[in-house]
Amino acid sequence: MKDRSDLFSNFGSSDDQFEDFEQAIPLMSEEEEKELTEAEIPDELPILPLKNTVLFPGVVVPITVGRDKSLSLVKEAYEGDKIIGVVTQKKEEIEEPNFKDLHTVGTVAQILKLIKMPDGSKSIVIQGKSVFEVENFVQDKPYFKAKVKSYPKEIDIEGVELDASIRNIKETATKIINMSPNLPSEASIAVNNINSPTFLLNFISSNLNVSDDEKQALLELKKFSETLDKVMEFLEKEIQVLDVSEKIRTKVKSDIDDQQREFYLRQQMKAIQEELGDDAEHQDIEKLRNKLESKKLPDYAREVAEKELQRLEMTPSASPNYGIIHGYIEWILDLPWEEYSEDRLDLEHAQKVLDEDHYGLEKVKKRIIEYLAVLKLKQDMKAPILCFYGPPGVGKTSLGKSIARALNREFERFSLGGIRDEAEIRGHRRTYIGALPGRIIRSMKKAGKGNPVIMLDEIDKVGADYRGDPTSALLEVLDPEQNDTFSDNYLELEYDLSRVLFIATANSLDTIPAPLRDRMEIINISGYTLEEKTQIAKKYLIPKQIGENGLNKEQISISDKAVEKIIDQYTRESGVRNLDRQIAAVCRGVAAKIAKGEEGPHTVGDDEVEDFLGKRKYFSDAAERTTVPGVATGLAWTPFGGDILFIEASVSKGSGKLNITGQLGDVMKESAMLAISYLRAHADEIGIPEEAFKYWDLHIHVPAGAVPKDGPSAGVSLMSAIASILTQRKVKGTIALTGEITLRGLVLPVGGIKEKVLAAKRAGVKEVLLPKKNEKDVAEIEEEVIGDLKVQYLERMDPLLDIMLEKEPVNDPTEFFKVSDAHKTAVSGNNTPKTVTTVSNDN
């Protein structure tokens, strides 16, 4: 049986082999059945595997034979005694089964007829004889052959109970035939004419609408009563299904009658409207209705659209509500509810596209390839929410376009920078004049597909005011567990965003609320190295600027040395935006020369760069700034990449006060106090006179003074600068350092290591000191990035001063910090409490 309406499929056949149902079913007497079941089973049988058929004793079925092994078996058996063994495959899809793919219980069959087909295959008509069990297979070529034994079945009920059971089976089967619209009523005559109880069960089992595994289980049952109960269970289920089917057919017929009535009334309304001259409005409504009928919509959205369309028909076109309802219906119909672009799940193609558009960024590319690989295996995977986090100009936004191109998806981008109204995300309610859906839904409409790549640019710059908090509205959008039921205030319908690949970009994570940050997978895109910038300039920036400035490759060439000079002396950034501008300036200069008649080709080397860009703008001044005691070079992280930070310390006669300037935050001030406390506690070991703390004031300054600074990572730098001024030993000019300090003398790990290392290289630093626990971060940095830069690690502050400071002091600390007795008396007589105070220029 192929479907539930075809319980006895053999009865519905139009095959010319059978003139009536009596011929279709070889009816048996009890004597014939006894002969059939007691027929001797050979010790060995050729085995014919069947894909989707279970043969029962007494039942006649046609079989199409196409496999080479099966053709050999049928040919040899038909020329011989025509007796074969038939077993069913465990899995239908296996084309070339082996022993373990076959059931071990099957049916002895006799080939009644062999028919050769035009395509080379053969059809046979076989009749089941008796059940056997395979002991073991003895050959698999040219066809399967097995040793078999009888599989006897026990008739364990008799008399009145048997008669009642058989009558019940026949009545139920007859009821099913009468209820099924696809089966002729004559089929019940054939069923009632079967006298043999065993053959009746075999015949009904063969035609049941159940799976092959369930039929095989029926064949393997040894007790007649168990088979009877199981067959009856299946028949009762079929009756229930047919009851439900009948109810459905009745309901569908009623719905069709209603539709015909509605169509008739609409035709009348159309004629009335034409007479009234209101045909334009009617055409507009009909256009919407036709679009609704052809549009794929979820049931709940279609129900709302139809309801609103009925309201529109009843609303006069002059009414203000007419435009509101019309616009709402159009939004529903314009959205891609169940329309998706087909993903191009070709990993090699995706890698090629990403490599073509972006140099480096291996971590991001790897994540996208992983997403594609999982999507290829799983097909219905929920899209991840990615957040590209890094300094400006490193290619975060353009990377989104490349990902969309690699996936063969639509790409939409909108900037969240400066958005303060929650309605920008969720939309306005329709009660407001000029209401619209939010940006998410508008982007989906513009994309036209339900699985685009949507880039949420500058997610860290979203604001909040009395109109709501947009970041709170984004919580639902960017949660893979919730966004399959996203609700827009305008639509008021659940919309599935789970297949959208959202990519957010941010320069800083500090301003992103923790719940929103937790919903995104943060991928850090750090700054580019000199080598990476050089390759980006050669492969992308120079060809782009040559084209944008009206030049061609024959007219201008820029050497690698010139590019490196522009990067080193004219830009100071993590990304490549300023590099792009400087290359554009060079191209404009060449374009001006060509416009004046100086035909090329023009070669721009490192000597010619200054002609186009003027004097160099940036210098590696780390060594120059540390030529006096009290100046240390620190490494800092900023939203724009890494940078070097000079810590300056000086002393003057006073009473042990501490002055801090340079717009330092509370954490950085506390780091300075920690450094002083540590040095005071270890003054004798380090060689700092006691007078330095009692009779001298310490001033710490961090340029540039107009830029706010904070964080614990300047701890070791502050420590070095203060120790330098108090020991009068200069800080080595080629060393920069970063790390948090504690009163116990530990050096704790900090973040932004790669950005800081790049900043050190840009500034001409030869050696960096990092916390020991940041060693793992350095291991992730490419070897070519570190280059000849020497990296040392610190666990404690004890060896720091010997590494950072020159051995010989500029001045003897004992003599330098000596003060007169008069000064000591003045300080001692001062009533000012001897506590460390902080003075800053915080606004």
SSE arrangement:
Blueprint: H1 21-24, H2 30-37, E1 44-50, E2 60-65, H3 68-79, E3 83-88, E4 105-116, E5 122-139, E6 144-150, H4 159-179, H5 187-192, H6 197-207, H7 212-220, H8 224-276, H9 279-294, H10 299-314, H11 320-334, H12 347-357, H13 362-378, E7 385-389, H14 396-407, E8 411-415, H15 423-426, H16 439-447, E9 453-457, H17 470-477, E10 486-487, E11 494-495, E12 501-506, H18 514-518, E13 521-524, H19 530-548, E14 556-558, H20 560-570, H21 577-595, E15 602-604, H22 609-613, H23 622-625, E16 631-638, E17 641-653, E18 658-661, H24 666-681, H25 683-686, H26 691-694, E19 696-701, H27 715-727, E20 735-737, E21 740-741, E22 747-748, H28 753-762, E23 767-771, H29 775-779, H30 783-786, E24 790-794, H31 800-804, H32 813-816, H33 821-829
Parallel strand pairs: 1-3, 7-12, 7-13, 8-9, 9-12, 14-15, 18-19, 20-23, 23-24
Antiparallel strand pairs: 1-6, 2-5, 3-4, 4-5, 5-6, 10-11, 16-17, 17-19, 21-22
Describe this structure in words.
A hairpin with a 2-residue loop joins strand 16 and strand 17. This protein is elongated. The chain has five domains: 212 residues, LON domain-like (Archaeosine Trna-guanine Transglycosylase, Chain: A, domain 4, Roll), CATH 2.30.130.40; 57 residues; 178 residues, P-loop containing nucleotide triphosphate hydrolases (Rossmann fold, 3-Layer(aba) Sandwich), CATH 3.40.50; 84 residues, Helicase, Ruva Protein, domain 3 (Orthogonal Bundle); 208 residues, Ribosomal Protein S5, domain 2. It is 44% helix and 16% strand. By secondary structure, the chain is α/β, with parallel strands linked by helices. It has a five-stranded mixed barrel. Strands 8-9-12-7-13 form a five-stranded parallel sheet, sandwiched between helices. Strands 16-17-19-18 form a four-stranded mixed sheet. Helix 6 packs parallel to helix 8, helix 9 packs antiparallel against helix 10 and helix 12 packs antiparallel against helix 14.
